[in-house]
UniProtKB/TrEMBL annotation:
Source organism of the structure: Cuscuta campestris
GO cellular component: cytoplasm
SUPFAM superfamilies: ARM repeat (SSF48371)
Xref: InterPro entries: ARM-type_fold (IPR016024), TELO2-interacting_protein_1 (IPR052587), TPR_TTI1_C (IPR057567), TTI1_rpt (IPR049362)
Protein name as catalogued: TTI1 C-terminal TPR domain-containing protein
Pfam families reported in the protein's UniProt record: TPR_TTI1_C, TTI1
Recorded superkingdom: Eukaryota
Domain called TTI1 C-terminal TPR: residue spans: 547-714
Length: 789
């Protein structure tokens, strides 16, 4: 290794006594300025926090970088860089060995922490990683300017000319007549480059060791295993600093190797770990992972991290699928999947690759999988939710694309009909797939016919591609619904809410897929009709089996019982969300499908409207307790009593809003046909009670119900209104009977029409001021318009 005095002597030598080759007079231009400033690597280690520590570290880092560059430049001793790097690397290997020994002996973290010197082993490994990072960074060409500044020479001396050398896809600057730069440039070709890659590979092997990433970062991750007392917070802080420095080191290695970092396989081995730490609970590790991912994306000419992951999506997804088979050893897989889909935002781009992945995830969300790995249910559901959102996003674009494609086909056919007969004889083989008409003469084909044939081939290929992609989107959405549906009835509130979100997005995706299928069918029929009109001898293709295209209603048929079970669980939060989900899916699927289901299972919904939140109702003895499977927790009998009045009030308001939404929409209104009188009686009874928290919701529900049958709503309101009113209006003519003849006063309050239709309620007593206000409001909003229309 050359000494500093020798380096200074060479720098001061006359330029005419030595010449530098083109290879030695080039230097890699640093990263773009915006990336270099925002994600600058290497960074000052997190333990240099005292005043003056930054300047001290810069001096130490300069020495380490100089050592690394001189070791790499010393070609007389092969492997000198690897030999020196093994010294700090030994501290990492010692830490890995100790953690591995802890696992063999089932030792607690508290005992291990005391035995290894209260974190001294981790801090030594962090320092060693920092030394290795700076030594490798010293080999990169980004430090040339720093060296020249350190020794008093400007990097801009001499006349230079910039150019681009495309051997490794890196930017280079050629500097002529700059003798001092020749000292810092080193030949990285041939054997030297291989030694550098081998050295970085050895370091990465230790950096990516599972023992290092198994070190706990927070007390909650060890409280289940260690019961000997609380660990010192410095232990978790030291572990976080070690992982942060290692992550930054991966970015430094990428800067040093450029695109060779990817071609050597290092990107594939580290990308998975980076995605996992993007959603780490520790902010510093999360920020370091984000910074390194952006640096790697820039070096690989990717506009964003999403494009980087997309370029390596097959590897990432394959790794996830492999690790899903061994969840006991890889419990972090769901988090990586969630990071790739949500943070990176490439779910819609890699959707066709997710079919196999969804099958594996669905197995883990089945009864056996949830029983074996209960702590992974929510992470898996989050991943399924992201996949479903991507499916819904892609599915919403399919109908418009299919319709546009149909218009394009019709336009081409209309143009061909106008030019009928021009190229008829030369186009007889347009749809003859995989064969040629042998007796056709080559000279009979004109350029117009060839263009016509190419257009038809393009149409057929596009139609087939769209069909394959549509089926893939529908299959993934269906798999997501199947995986999440059982968890709608879960007692776990978080899992239930995520499952409900999956159902909404999945049902919407299936509806759009079916809509796109109808457009594709029209396109196919149009093409077939044209072919048969022109070429009767061509046989129709009846091979396609379209029986699997009907996905929406079968999926909804499986989901419905679990929605009912969710309501029966009587969790206020999940019940309110379930009401919104039912309102959405009924409007998507159509009300006719749900008419019989509301007639059969509606009692569980309407039961929530029969009792005022401010009056407790004793449970009848004959009410059956829902069947509980052996592995589920049995609900307490006093669970209903623990629900607050405001929570119950919000549930009833949400249920009234659901009724309003279903009734106002013509597509979903048929769902209430079989229970219309029952629902109308319940809503009128709530409206007449004058409960302020339900006033607006009951008005909206009555307005919606009146859009279906305004006469019935008027009768229910007038029956109570005119029974209490003294000044009754006289009939317009003698031909009309009086109000009392139409609606005779009931002998008791239990004989009102709304009670006979809706059933007996508890706590919703009639408030005549509310009756009068409700009748007046409905008369102005509904009945007056009905009278004039």
């Amino acid at each position: 290794m050359r000494s500093i005095a020798e380096l200074n002597a060479v720098i001061k030598a006359e330029s005419e006594n030595s010449e530098c080759s083109v290879l030695q007079n080039r230097k890699i231009v640093s990263l773009p300025e915006n990336v270099h400033t925002e994600y600058e690597l290497p960074r000052v280690p997190p333990w240099f926090v005292n005043i003056g520590s930054h300047d001290l570290y810069q001096a130490l880092a300069g020495i380490l970088r100089l050592v690394g560059r001189c070791l790499f430049a010393d070609s007389q001793i092969e492997g000198s860089l690897s030999a020196i790097a093994d010294i700090p690397l030994g501290h990492l290997r010692k830490l890995i060995s100790e953690v591995r020994t802890k696992g063999y002996h089932s030792e607690s973290w508290l005992s291990w922490y005391k035995r290894t010197g209260s974190g001294q082993l981790v801090r030594q490994a962090s320092t060693a990683a920092c030394i290795l990072n700076e030594m490798i960074y010293g080999i990169s060409d980004q430090v040339i300017a720093n060296f020249q500044t350190m020794f008093g020479k400007s990097s801009l001396s001499g006349n230079g000319e910039c150019f681009y050398a495309d051997d490794n896809g890196e930017y280079f600057e050629f500097v002529g007549n700059a003798q001092e730069e020749c000292v810092w440039n080193v030949n990285k070709g041939g054997n030297a480059r291989s030694q550098l890659i081998d050295c970085i590979g050895n370091i990465l092997h230790e950096y990516l060791s599972s023992e290092i990433w198994d070190l706990p970062l927070e007390s909650s991750s060890v409280s289940h295993f260690d019961g000997e007392g609380n660990l010192n917070s410095y232990f978790f802080h030291d572990n976080a600093m070690l992982q942060q420095v290692i992550i930054e080191g991966i970015g430094i290695f990428n800067i040093c190797l450029g695109k060779e970092f990817s071609s050597s396989g290092f990107l594939h081995s580290s990308l998975y770990m980076m995605l996992e730490n993007v959603i780490c609970s520790n902010f510093h590790i999360r920020r370091a992972s984000d910074a390194v991912l952006h640096v790697i994306s820039t070096i690989n000419n990717c506009p964003s991290v999403g494009h980087l992951v997309l370029a390596n999506a097959d590897y990432v997804i394959d790794s996830i699928c492999q690790q899903l088979r061994h969840l006991d050893l890889n419990p972090h897989v769901p988090n990586v999947l969630s990071a790739m889909l949500s943070y990176v935002g490439v779910a819609d781009k890699v959707l066709p690759l997710l079919e196999e992945l969804m099958r594996a995830v669905a197995m883990e969300l089945e009864i056996l999988g949830r029983n074996q790995h209960p702590h992974l249910t929510t992470p898996f559901l989050k991943a399924v939710a992201e996949i479903t959102k991507a499916s819904s996003k892609e599915a919403c674009a399919l109908p418009e694309k299919a319709e546009s494609f149909l218009k394009e086909v019709k336009f081409k056919i209309s143009n061909m009909d106008k030019e009928k007969g021009k190229h008829f004889s030369s186009s007889s083989h347009i749809m003859d797939i995989g064969s040629e008409v042998s007796d056709r003469k080559p000279e009979s084909c004109s350029s117009g016919a060839d263009l016509q044939e190419e257009d038809w081939e393009s149409i057929l290929f596009n139609l087939n591609d769209s069909r394959i992609y549509r089926r893939a989107v529908g299959s993934i959405a269906g798999s997501c619904i199947i995986a999440a549906t059982p968890l709608i009835a879960s007692d776990d509130q978080a899992a239930c809410l995520i499952a409900l979100d999956v159902v909404v997005d999945g049902i919407l995706a299936l509806a759009k897929v079916e809509e796109a299928y109808k457009q594709e069918s029209k396109t196919k029929e149009t093409v077939e009709d044209f072919i048969l009109s022109r070429f009767p001898h061509v046989l129709q293709d009846n091979v396609d089996d379209e029986t699997g295209e009907n996905r929406l209603l079968p999926a909804m048929n499986k989901v419905w019982p679990f929605l009912v079970a969710c309501v029966r669980n009587k969790n206020p939060v999940t019940t309110r969300r379930c009401c919104r989900v039912i309102s959405t899916v009924v409007q998507i699927c159509g009300g006719e499908f749900f008419a019989r289901r509301f007639h059969t299972d509606g009692i569980h919904f309407w039961k929530l409207l029969t009792t005022s939140p401010f009056q407790k109702k004793s449970h009848p003895k004959q009410e059956r307790v829902p069947l509980q499977l052996p592995y589920r927790k049995s609900s307490n009998s006093s669970e209903d009593d623990s629900v607050g009045e405001i929570s119950s009030l919000k549930v009833q308001a949400e249920l009234l809003n659901m009724i309003s939404d279903l009734a106002r929409n013509k597509r979903s209104a048929p769902a209430l046909d079989a229970v219309f009188k029952k629902v109308s009686g319940l809503v009128v009874g709530i409206a007449f009670s004058g409960v302020k928290g339900l006033l607006e919701a009951s008005v909206n529900a009555l307005v919606g119900l009146a859009s279906i049958d305004p006469d019935l709503i008027w009768l229910l309101l007038s029956d109570v209104y005119y029974s209490r009113k003294k000044d009754l209006p006289s009939p317009p003519t003698s031909e009309f009977p009086g109000i009392l003849e139409i609606l005779p006063p009931p002998p008791s309050s239990k004989e009102y029409l709304y009670v006979l239709y809706g059933g007996q309620t508890f706590g919703f007593d009639i408030d005549f001021s509310a009756v009068e206000a409700m009748y007046t409001k409905l008369h102005d909003q509904v009945f007056t318009k009905q009278m004039y229309t």
